Amino acid sequence: MSENHELAGTRAKRTSPLTFYRQVVAELRKVVWPTRPQVVNYFFVVLVFVLIMMAFVSALDYGFGKAAFAIFA
């Protein structure tokens, strides 16, 4: 980062694809991957949240639809 500030006004050298690949692999090794039980738990939490939001939006849609028919019909 500091190199870019020092080179302001001059064109920085591009990273080669091989260097980029090595940097990507190095960063992926730093990632803390979730365990299988964590992934399963996250899946069910997201599934329940999505089902609740679907029910909420469906209820709003049904209510507004009934109101619109009552007003305009």
Radius of gyration, taken over Cα atoms and rounded to an integer in Å: 26 Å
Distance between the termini: 65 Å
Largest sheet: none
Contiguous low-pLDDT stretches (5 residues minimum) are none
How much of the residues is beta strand, in percent?
under 5%
Highlighted features:
73 residues; mainly alpha; 3 helices; 77% helix
Explain this structure to me?
The chain is mainly α. About 75% of the residues lie in helices and about 0% in strands. It has 3 helices and no strands. The model has no long low-confidence stretch (mean pLDDT about 90).
Topology:
Elements lengths: L1 H5 L10 H14 L5 H37 L1
Give a quick rundown of the structure.
The chain is mainly α.
